[in-house]
Amino acid sequence: MSNSRRTFLIQSVIACSGVIAPRLAFADWAEDHFAPGKLDRTLDRLYADATIVESDAIALKLPLIAEDGAVVPITVSSTLGNVESIAILVEKNPVPLAAIFNIAPETEPFVSAHLKMAETCDVIAVVKSGETLYSARQQVKVTIGGCGG
């Protein structure tokens, strides 16, 4: 086998592995959770008919006014025990579910991220602790940018 043929075969295998590997990484992607729609529909897809209880045990750290809706910082923490997940939803975004984080057992329920917001609306954090869902919300006023422009 010539050296150029061997090089071609090696490069082909490397290129194909770059196409296959991402598909395996996204095998468990919950595409319907991140589908466009209204907030109520998204909550139904995520939690079916479960009752969500407002709680002071969830701390949201968000700006009251976001100068740029394209980059809105958020921090969510909780004093609840046995937290399994934290979901962040933006009420009036085309896709309300911004992120969902699975929290490993015996770790601090704390997440920090940046959101993109379409317009002024509530940001909601839903925390799953055991079999119960808790939430907290805060309105953020968006002045420019965001999902819409």
Total tally of structural domains: 1
Question: CATH homologous superfamily name?
Answer: SoxY domain
CATH topology: Immunoglobulin-like
What CATH architecture would you give?
Sandwich
Using the coordinates above, name the CATH class: Mainly Beta
Q: What structural category characterises the helix and strand content?
A: alpha+beta
**What percent strand?**
35-45%
Give an overview of the whole structure.
- With 149 residues, this protein is of the alpha+beta class.
- It has a single domain (31-142), classed as Immunoglobulin-like, CATH 2.60.40.2470.
- 21% of the residues lie in helices and 38% in strands.
- The chain has 2 helices and 9 strands.
- The strands form 2 sheets. Strands 1, 3, 5, 6, 8 and 9 form a 6-stranded mixed beta sheet that branches. Strands 2-4-7 form a 3-stranded antiparallel beta sheet, with no helix packed on it.
- Strand 5 (83-90) and strand 6 form a beta hairpin.
- The mean pLDDT is 86.
- This is Thiosulfate oxidation carrier protein SoxY.
- Residues 45-147 form the Ig-like SoxY domain.
- InterPro entries: SoxY, SoxY_sf, Sulphur_oxidation_SoxY, TAT_signal.
- It comes from Methylotuvimicrobium buryatense.
Topology:
Layout: H1 3-25, H2 39-47, E1 52-54, E2 58-61, E3 65-66, E4 72-78, E5 83-90, E6 97-102, E7 110-115, E8 121-129, E9 132-142
Parallel strand pairs: 1-9, 3-9
Antiparallel strand pairs: 2-4, 4-7, 5-6, 5-8, 8-9
Describe the structure using short key phrases:
149 residues, 9 strands, alpha+beta, 3-stranded antiparallel β-sheet, 2 helices, 6-stranded mixed β-sheet, single chain, Immunoglobulin-like, SoxY_sf
